[in-house]
Amino acid sequence: MKTKIFSIITLLILINQVPAVACHDATISCYTTVNLSLGPTCSLEITPEMVLYEVCPDKTYKVELFDGLPTPGNSLPNPIDGSYLGTNIVARVTDIESNNSCTADIILEDKTPPFIDFVGAPINLSCRDNFEEVISIGVFDNCGESFYQVSSIEHKCVPCEYDSIYITYELFDEYGNTASETKGFELVDFCFDAEFPEDVTYDCPPEMGEIPSITVNDSDEFCALSLSIDISDIRLGCDITRLYTVTEDCSGRSVTHTQIIDILEEDPPTIEITPPDGPITLDEFNDGFIPEYEAFSDCGILFTVTDQTIKESLSCNPVSFLALYDIYTVDVCGNSSPTEQVLVEVIADDPPKVKLSGRKNCSSEFIVTAETRDMAKPVSFSWSISNPLWSITAIPGTNQARVRSGGGKATVEVIATDLSGCIQSGTKKYYCKRSPFDFSNNEEIGVFPNPTSDKLNVTLVDEIEQIDIYTLDGKLIQSINNINAHYMSIDMDMYSPGIYFVSIMSGNDTIVEKIVKD
What we know:
6 domains, mainly beta, 7-stranded mixed beta sheet, 518 residues, Immunoglobulin-like, 40 strands, 3 helices
């Protein structure tokens, strides 16, 4: 009988022809050698059709696989997988009806090439990325290890619209199967010919022109047209994080690059203070006296901070105290020196004085000014006035107060407190003949009857909080507090006949009405 070979390689069947066998014959005929390739799952079920020269449709066959001789101890599974590549496999096919059988040698191969089954690329894939590093692919091989390499990267673009790259990968496995696949990726930015600067390090801050910057070259290699370049800095001490932004004018797409400019200067500056030889005068203190000092830094001083506090008050007549000075310096990188301290004695030449000045105006407001001498600045002021028909209001942040005159006499007093805690007061007297009140025509208030002989009724749309009654010369003779009502009745029997002023307070408002007692 002639040699018979049957081979299936990825669905391709190669057969060495043998004489036909009639289906009614009891004999069966196998190919001598059959080449079979494992499928995509690296497994294959060997069927009678793969081994027999002719399969009769009305017969039932059994296929058994063996490792070498077809004996029970050498049985192999069917389907068979890639772990048996290179094994001497024998297939035995038996006709169940006649129990006749034949055998064939199976040469098991892997002819399935690998393929890309996974691609991982950043959403914000940039033209400036290292594509081979940031793009990952997964290569699948049905039976063994697989490998790949980039064979080419092609750039394609449409000006002002999009930029893309196409990467061709060469794939191969351990059995020598090869394939080639090309994958395309759209870029979020655009490509242009430029050199971004590297990170740099200096001992001390350099001049700005010494720091490497971006270089843009004229090139027609890429699609980018007119470009705009913006450079911005974020500083932390002397260290600079510099952001370069290159924008394609026609599309608005931009590309950014970050450069780190690191300054190694880390040692803080130092400062040395020279104390004064003895006490200083209060005038020197008030003029902003600062002890002599010298600052040291490797890269330069940016500024120095001086603060003073009163450590201890020694006397108030004249003023004397101990002032504590805290001084530190900051270098050009923002490093601060340790704070140095010096204690200085301050002595005034004369006792403290406060003088008030201000010309009165009986028809409108006027200003009163307090002038101090031989007191430690800054000085705070507390104002008061003796006549309740007059009013005084301090002007914040100044040595002045605003006075609104009323009838009769009034004494303005100020209490001045200096930085050392010493206190000195001053007074000034005023006199005005005019009526002490501006009367209201407010329709929301009712004061009746007027004139009255026994009862005085007061009504107000808002709640009445307090009612004060004054004589014509401004003397307070009755005060009713915590009323918190819209109506109040006042017994006037105790009052002598004459003219009185009724002051009604509600919230921040004060309304004055003139009444006559019969």
